[in-house]
Records
---
Amino acid sequence: MHTPTQLQAILEEAIKQIVYPTHPNNLYEPIKYIMSLGGKRIRPVMVLMATELFTENVKSALDVALAIETFHNFTLVHDDIMDNAPLRRGKQTVHEKWGVNNAILSGDVMMVESNKHLSKVAISVLKPVLDTFNATAQGVCEGQQLDMEFEQRSDVSIAEYIEMIRLKTAVLLGGAMKLGAIVGGANETESALLYKFGENLGVAFQLQDDILDVYGNPEKFGKQVGGDIIANKKTFLHLKALALAQGDEAICLTATDLAQEEKIQAVTALYDKYDIQNLANNEMDKYLSVANKALADLPVSESKKEQFTTLVQQILERDK
């Protein structure tokens, strides 16, 4: 079994070997650019790890892993446009560098490139691979739509929020695991357990992201602490505090007339009063427990599962 780090190295080399057309330049240069910005490549690594549970030929899933990574970066290009984000991984976003219209079109082509990668899998698994990928991609788009709609609503429930992050974030991790399992030759039960593992890990990951936005070390977390608070994002912490706050306490959660630092301090104080951090940690642990149970139920040797512990640590220890 390869380690996640070794699989990352395999993926980086494979990404470098992708040959895109050279004309029109402004269509394909943005794709090369966003794909070269790096990151931990967690989602395609999950594809390869799932495959390696069932076959030693890990490279049989390399094209599926590249499809997942290309699709993920496609969503980042379009998400950055919707969020008007200036930076991605410390570099200019595609729409800042090439303009919004070029970024939209380059993102569209990335979806085509994802399907070109998928078309290279063995014909015996092509249909289930395509079915799983399409369901995953559609779910991600549904989650993004819900996230945008939540910005205009004042009555979002915690259950709705969990469903939104399941779609926007978690189904891609679950889909990556299931795709790798299918290519590796897993049966439906095994594939379903790996999907369950990835999906619940994805929900835990996003809940941790909510927590780190308030309580994380900005140098290790890689984002501005309090960014969700400033943007009035309806995170788990925000919604839980809204439900527990008494009287006028909740006013600070949606206030727009406070200076940024003042707002962060006021909201954080409210979170501290109602122990929101621990409540969010408990919620995260609930989903992590379901993920670990799915992995434990997977009928493969324990030695083959060891690298998944390393993967979970990589995903959930971002501030340590």
---
Amino acid sequence: MTDHDAEDFVEDLPLEPLPLDAWHRARGARMVPFAGYEMPIQYEGIVAEHTWTRESAGLFDVSHMGQLFISGEGVEPALEAVLPIDLTTLKHGAPRYSLLLDANGGVLDDLMVTRWSEGFYLVVNGATKWDDIAHLREHLPDEVTISHMDDSALLALQGPKAFAALERLVSGDTPLASLTFMKGAAFKLGGVDAWISRSGYTGEDGFEISLPAENVAAVADLICEQPEVKPIGLGARDSLRLEAGLPLYGHDMTPDTSPIEAGLLFGINKRRRTEGGFPGAERIIREIAEGTTRKWVGLKLEGRLPAREGAEVFVGEGKVGTVTSGGFSPTLGAPIAMAYVASEHAAPGTQLEVEVRGKRLAATVSPTPFVPHRYHRGN
């Protein structure tokens, strides 16, 4: 298997079915517990699905993610006090990456924020969404309303042929072609109201589609009727994001890591880096100025044996870091990983060793992404 084995996704949480549960099973999906749901890890195999997405277009069910709508009197300054984002520069319909931080600057979650006409649409991680909702309720004033959009599903259509497949199916005031990376708009998709943004978690061009859960099976059928599209499971989603050098919450970032250690400075807007006024600002502003003792880096390993989360990283006999994500890259035909290492050993080209199954494997610090992003940014 090119990525995590199925048991890596098993979590001790009460399981709920996704809106597409029967749809996945009818297509032969192998279902595993993840983030409180039974989710499809693969249909025909992780390598085949990974390669198909890189070459054509794959449909991912990401309805386990939390979709929230934040609205009410004073919502903009209230949300700015909780997130390190500059909402004054956030245009309507344009998603932006941000972070939910604790008082010490540790990462509670990473998320996407979009300005809608009456408030802000947030997409948060599935495994943390209930904690996120509780945190927001605690820290936002009573005048601000948090609506959990639990009657909505979320699909991701990813790959170089995603646009060709989706353009046939949508209508609306906005041409799909006008959406560049990190832009969104309302459309009709198979006659169903949908919010579509040009974004994703694979490094490929693609779209994320929020729509009513009651319509998602019919829409998924319609999308998969397109010759470019196949359904893709959780396993290939993880191997694709690993090649794209994208962090996974709970693995590559946790409350024990700061955004600066994790290389996520872009999630903190420029004005906030000096003004502060968000949780953990003191530590983060200090780390921006002074640096950190460790950094999150990419690693390319020699041989074919992959390093998994928790593998220790060495220079000589001294441990200098720990792997947070790792697997075998189908695109590169070699194992890759991401790890936190001591800052003095974090420069690209640095030679390290990773201990896997009692053996020391040679590894080289590598820039990320391992496979270049192919986001559609316009001409």
